[in-house]
What does this fold into?
Amino acid sequence: MTPDGKTRLPLAGNHPDGSHLRTALTLAAAGVPVLPLRRGKVPFGNCTTCADNACGGRPNMKTPGPCDCPGVCHAWAAATTQPAVIVSTPWAAAWRRAVCVGYHPGGAGLTVVDLDDADAIAWARETLPATRTVPTTRGEHWIYRGPMTSRNKVRPGVDVKSSMSYARYLGPGTGAMADLPDTVRALAAKTRSPARPVPHAGVPAGSGGQCPHRTPAFLERGIAMAEQRITAARSAIHATVYGTFLAVLSRHGRCGCLTDTHVARLFTAAQSMGETARHCADAWTNARSTLGL
It folds into this structure.
């Protein structure tokens, strides 16, 4: 952690002895949550107890959750900066099998723009502000200071990895790290489904009437009511959260009104009731699928 309170990847690279564990401890000391990655450069799978999310999901870095599994079987959500966890017995076998070190960019307050080929790199150099860059097998990672929602395939050869995602640590890279530009946030937002009209009382579909969702007060009242519904629940929290997400999306999901800020407010309300970030993401995804969004 730097004097200005901002997390930055350490300038120290992979350790000369090739120890993934040593590299992980260096990253963790700099405030970067880490996890071991196995063959295929993917996280380790769920243990028997946690298979099919039977445990209720791993807590994220800030909000306690129901799963007390001491292992590393919950991908990005298991990433940690705690040395005692990183060197613990449950993690030891994973480090011995690991092929590389992964980290959770969003948990470190970072965003990785993963450029997968020469064309993507050329596009980034023409479009994005210069920042810390790290060579990868086929392209480059451009690392910015500031978290956001992760989205894959925002354009050909380009993925955005930040919250609820992981990236490989491939060394310190070169260049000064810049703040996350609005260009990247806007690029990710473009991957959402195109806005489609939805019927409302008094505004028949296709009538050309003004969508009431475009009124800030209308949307704000809806989000506030959704937050209240979640935090007022005293039982059946899972069902309440899913039902609320479904209601919000059925009312506002096709107009393009919802922003990451609105979604974050709903997730925060759910997590204040004990839901994990993973549960929130699953419930949101299921609600979107149910509505065909």
Remarks:
- Residues 1-5, 11-17, 60-64, 192-210 have pLDDT under 50 and may be disordered.
- The two ends are 40 Å apart (CA to CA).
